[in-house]
Amino acid sequence: CFNSGSSCEKCDFETDLCKALHESNLQSGWIRRNGRSGMGPPYSDHNGNDSAYFLSLSPEMRSSSATLRTNVFLPTDKEHVCQITFHYWISQMSGTLVVGLQKLSEDTITNIWQVSGELQNQWKANTITINSTEKYEV
Predict the structure, then answer these.
(1) Partner of 122 at 20 to 30 A CA spacing, among 9, 44, 52, 104?
(2) Number of Cβ within a 10 Å radius of residue 113
(3) CA gap 18, 70 in Å, rounded
(4) What are the C-alpha distances in Å from 45 to residues 63, 75, 86, 101?
(5) For 39, left (φ over 0), alpha (ψ -120 to 50), or beta?
(6) DSSP 8-class letter at 74
(7) What pTM was estimated for this model as a whole?
(8) 131: nearest Cα among 85, 83, 86
(9) What is the C-alpha separation between 83 and 67, in angstroms, rounded?
(10) b/e 28-61 (16+ beta carbons within 10 angstroms → b)
(11) What is the Cα–Cα distance from 79 to 95, expressed in whole angstroms?
């Protein structure tokens, strides 16, 4: 859910990539699949629905990294807070999931959250709050 102020955009992958993500991103090693795909766990989404879609690293990408990038978000202030809640599943001990922030005036990406090495084979949820005085991507 991408929450900017009182408006909350729910982001799922039932028909395609959700509006918050760049459409060009899916070629970067991510595939849209569900629990019935025969690709191994997870066998359902975070609600236990085996026909609901989620994004997964393609099997060829197991040993390398892939990026998902959002569209441009507007600056935040006291009235316009940005909160992003996402569900994730890490199926490898060596896997690391990183959330980064890139301001449009900067070339560098600042890591604002990460998790790694906890092979728990279960969906977990995390919420991050973003503060940026200029336009940014996540």
Answers:
(1) 9
(2) 14
(3) 10
(4) 23, 31, 12, 26
(5) alpha
(6) P
(7) 0.82
(8) 83
(9) 20
(10) ebbbebbbeeeeeebebbbeeeeebbbbbbeeee
(11) 36
Written as six digits, the tokens of 123 are: 């969906």
Alpha carbons 25 and 70: distance in angstroms, whole number: 9
Q: Which residue has the tokens 């990539």?
A: 17
Q: Which residues pair with 53 in a beta bridge?
A: 34
Name the one residue in this structure whose structure tokens are 């990294």: 65
CA 55 to chain centre: 8
CB-count exposure of residue 86 (10 Å: 0-12, 13-18, 19+):
middle
HSE toward the beta carbon, residue 96, CA cutoff 13 A:
8
Q: Which two tokens stand for residue 11?
A: 């982001």
Residue type for 121, please?
N
Write out the two tokens for 5: 């102020």
List pLDDT tens digits, range 33-81.
999 999 888 999 999 999 999 998 887 776 788 888 888 989 988 888 8
CA atoms within 13 A on the CB side of 128: 15
